[in-house]
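Encode chain A's predicted structure.
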Amino acid sequence: MSDGGSLRPEPGQVVPAAYEGTWKFDAPALDSSVPQSRHAVRDLLVRRRVPIGDDLLQGVLLIVSELVTNAVRHAGVLSPEIGVELSVGAGWVRVAVRDQHPYRPKALQADEEETGGRGLLLVKAITNEAGGACDVQHTVDGGKVIWASLPLAGVTSPRTAPSAPGWPAWPRRAPS
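Encoded structure for chain A:
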């Protein structure tokens, strides 16, 4: 007897939630890409019905804004396009921005005397407060990926958040 075409998981098999997945898009290194990227990420999270609270959503959107702004302002001269990735798994959400500039921000820290440069400190603070992780990795082609992974509050899963973004189309190498 047919069960209507539904597939049943094997015993012990973890079935991904309907909202899980990875989405990537490229954007020009222009100021207009900041709000466009933020809106694209917000709309995707809402459309996929990701169980993300409003505070965490606002934090994720602020991280997207800061990472895209940094890529546009500091890497745009060598990177006319940037890549944005949103990954959602059972219990976590991760955003990452790739550019072609080789400069690696100093451990996501800023000089106290500088008037700017607080964006990555803000990313780090939001990530730490949520119990997540963030880092910078160099890519094989000489650029970098800056990412932040945050737990979805109240969502539990045997799978844990990856410590680094999956960028198969953008090969990466170990940080030097």
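The two ends are 59 Å apart (CA to CA).
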